Amino acid sequence: MGRLPSAKPTSFDIAYLAGVSQPTVSRALRGSKSVSAATRANVERIARELNYTVDKNASSLRSQRTHTLALLFFEDPTPDESMINPFFLSMLGSITRECALRGYDLLISFQQLHNDWHVAYQDSHRSDGIILLGYGDYQLYRTKLEHLVEMGTKFVRWGSVSDDSIGLTVGSDNIGAGEQAGAHLVEIGRKQIAFLGDASDHAPEFQDRYTGLCRAMSAAGIAADAALQRDTVSSEESGYAAARSLLASGARFDAIFAASDLIAIGAMRALTEAGLRLPQDIAIIGFDDIPAASLTSPTLTTVMQDLKGAGSLLVDALLSSIDDAPVARTVLPTRLIRRQSTAV
Q1: Is the pLDDT of residue 117 over 70?
Q2: What is residue 15's three-state secondary structure?
């Protein structure tokens, strides 16, 4: 005799009708990639037909999981004093949607880099895993990442992806992006290209963007001039100060590649105040394609990162890690968005 459905459908009812185990049903409904697409689709179809909803309290008691992910923003200097980089705010939507699709709640928290956030979240057990956005000085951040690894905390971070990256990492192809930006500036006839951004191991993403720029220049037979590089954090005021420093040095330059749009917007203000025309005298490229990039005058050519793909991959990578499924570091492609600041 076949199994009779419960008055209130359970995951065991779905498992019976789908011909799979109850743990497979649980993984399928969480969207785990460890379950085949066909099985996942079949389980989801049966769940819809039964009007099944996940009982998060019961599920949590069985698995000792909270079915909650934590998203930690780290402080970043911004003009509106929000201290959250607008690029990461743009990424928030895709992360939130992906969590909802997977049946997870999202706990959002703002952290200062100097406090012991890594200990607090390890001890609180408020979430099954952590998504980390932003980091400030990477060398300080790195020691805290190493502590999370030692404690067995499940986490994924957005950042520079390399063989020596600490923990599970998702990020953009920053070297390739730098090459795109450099090749575009060379294409429009620029040869004295400045770079605004901390090109050191304290900011590996910026460092990779500068590496890509230098490669593009070298491929075109142009030597990068170290005197045209300024260590700059991602803020408008830092970009403004860096551009003023370049102008005060008397160094000749006909283009700027800024490591972020915020830096580029600040630099544009300094150049305009100095009476320079953009892009006729100085062409400029930013990075991130934040909403303000299309509102500047002239509008800002920039490198766009895959926000939707980033949010999906961050959540997917973290849930796979929580399930102890194999997951690799992921590098996302970027795209150059051409606007008026390089349209000569």
Answers
A1: no
A2: helix
Burial of residue 147, with CB atoms counted within 10 A of its CB: 0-12 exposed, 13-18 middle, 19 or more buried: middle
What residues pair up with 337 in beta bridges, in sequence order? 302
Q: Alpha-carbon torsion 121, 125, 126, 129, what sign?
A: positive
HEC profile for 218-243?
HHCCCCCCHHHEECCCCCHHHHHHHH
Tokens for 156? 């994924």
Angstrom CA distances, 194 to 187, 264, 274, stand at 16, 11, 17
Rounded to whole angstroms, how far apart are CA atoms 155 and 314?
9
Which structure tokens are listed for 34?
Answer: 């460890």
Answer yes or no: is pLDDT of 280 > 60.
yes
- Beta bridge pairs of residue 286: 302
Q: How far apart are CA 193 and CA 262, in angstroms?
A: 18
3 state DSSP class of 254: coil
Strand partners, 74: 111
Asked if residues 75 and 83 have their Cβ atoms less than 8 Å apart, the reply is yes
Q: Do the beta carbons of residue 194 and residue 229 sit within 8 Å? A: yes
- CA-only gyration radius of the chain, Å: 24
Q: Which residues pair with 77 in a beta bridge?
A: none
Q: Which of 18, 17, 22, 20 is nearest to 2 (CA)?
A: 17
- CA-to-CA distance for 50 and 14, rounded, in angstroms? 8
Q: Could you tell me which residue, 111 or 294, shows the higher pLDDT? A: 294
Q: What is the DSSP letter of 342?
A: G
Query: How many angstroms separate the CA atoms of 60 and 92, rounded?
Result: 25
In the beta sheet, which residues pair with residue 108? 71
Q: Counting every residue, how long is the chain?
A: 344
pLDDT in tens, 120-152: 555 556 788 999 987 778 887 888 888 888 888
Residue partners of 57: CB distance under 8 A and separation at least 6:
none
DSSP-derived pairing of the beta strands 330-332 and 283-288: unpaired
- CA contacts within 13 A on the Cβ side of 300: 29
- Here the tokens at position 94 are 């895709």
